[in-house]
Each structure stands twice: as structure tokens, then as C-alpha cells.
């Protein structure tokens, strides 16, 4: 009998009548109440894109009663009167979604006790989706950098003289030349930020406002993916180090003045071995840029499966998000 049993271990499960494959989890439906910023997009397939099975994302509001979760984009929520009226199934999650900083997220009041989950770039969100992250490489490899023809670049589309980033740029550009691209500067090479910045040794990854965890594609795509050393202005150095290695970026707070930062950039420009140390992370990691918005929608399905029936109510968005 033992011999017979050991032989059956090598048989496909369909040939073992006393065993059965686990049933696949029931499909989940995520209803997107508003498409972000009113722009219609083709919904991606969660299975094909992220290997997340049994996840259906729809904008069809007739699915309201049957949806496992309803996703609400904050920038399209002018006031509470725009939320669905009437009762909702007890197990249905209402998810508040926002990827703008608190400085650009007005009207956070008036919805106390409405949402079940939060989804944002903040690490203490119920569903944490950063703008990017470092992914481990399958095997360590050599660091290869594109040829660097120029020193320092910046891509900006929203110019505001009151922003700290513009003020710092004004001061820094007195001591080192910065090539400015975008709406207020030079045209991008082949209309690509990555291809443009890849020619430069350094990139100004300056955020439009400074808040905890608010580290956007300016770091992940514009700098790291383009193989330029990011010069960052945003949250504290310690906050950045929660996401990337300490020796992979330069923080403006490391210098007592823009003049000293400029001097350090020129020093690294002349010292190849020290400059290349800023790319030691590439031996073990690659930079992943979050795919807007498919990755966010599909991540909700993962959260639904992981959470089970755990109850949760967001008491007050304002104090939490502004903290």
C-alpha cells in the first residue's frame, strides 16, 4: 500500500480521484465611480498586466450593488453630494483614492465616516501605492550607464515663483548651469523625459510641495530610470531613505547653501569613481515606475482578498492626510 501511495504522488491530480484542486477564489468587481480628472481610459487587464486573477474593473454604475469595492478619486469629489445615495451592501468597501499632495488636495472635510479605506502614496494608507519603488534584480550584475554629455537638467511643466523648487532653482542657477526642459524650456528629445535626462549626470527631482512620503515620478522615472543622480527637494533625507539607499541621491538639505551644492556637483563631474558610486544600487535593483492608473485599480483587488471581512471606517480624512 505504501508503494502504491508513493507512486500516486507523481500522477496528475486529475488521475487521483480522491483529491481535488482548490477552487479558484470568487471574482471581484471594482467600480470606478469617476475616471481620474474626467479622462476616459481603456481599462487594463489585471491578469495580463500584474498576474492578478479574478479582478474586474469597470466604470459601469449599474454594477453599483454588486461591486465589492467602489473607488472614488478625490480630485473629482467636489462635495459630498456627488457620492452615491441610498444604502450600500454591508461588505462593500468605499475607497478614497488620492495621489496629489496635501497642498493640492482641497476640500478634505465633510466626509467623516463615509469611506472604509484610503489609497495613496502615504505609507500609512490602507492601500499603499507609491509612485515607484526599487525591485530586486534576479541576479546582481554590472552597472552600465549611458554616455553623459551634459551636467544638470530639470523638466518642469508647472512654473510657480512661489514654489520652493523654483526659488531654489533660481538660487542654484547662479552658480551652475541648469538645462530646463518642458513647457517653459527646451523641447524634450524625441518627446521623452527618460531619453532626454539620460544624457545628464544629475537631475533636479524637485517636488511641487514638501510633504511626508510625497516622492513622485520625478525621482523614480525622471532620474533613476534615466540613470541620472537625483538632486532632491521634497521631504526629509530620512524620509527618502525609507524608499531608496542613502548613497543613491543628493539632498539639498545636505548643503548649507545652493552655492555649496553647485560646488559639489562640479566636484563629482570631475571625479568619475565617486560619481559612479551613486549607482551602486543598480547592481541589485531596478527602478519600477507605478503604472497609472491600472496598477492602482488592480491593487484594490489584492487588498480585498487579503482583508477578508475586517471592518474599517475612516473617521476623518483631513487631519490624517495633512499630518
UniProtKB/TrEMBL annotation:
Start and end residues of each Fucosyltransferase C-terminal domain: 146-320
Top-rank EC class of the record's enzyme: transferase
Gene3D superfamilies associated with the record: Glycosyl transferase family 10, C-terminal domain (3.40.50.11660)
Cellular compartments per GO CC: Golgi cisterna membrane; Golgi membrane
Keywords, sorted A to Z: Glycoprotein, Glycosyltransferase, Golgi apparatus, Inflammatory response, Membrane, Signal-anchor, Transferase, Transmembrane, Transmembrane helix
Protein known as: Fucosyltransferase
Pfam family, one: Glyco_tran_10_N
E.C. number(s) listed in UniProt: 2.4.1.-
Organism: Pleurodeles waltl
Subcellular localization(s) per the UniProt record: Golgi apparatus membrane; Golgi apparatus, Golgi stack membrane
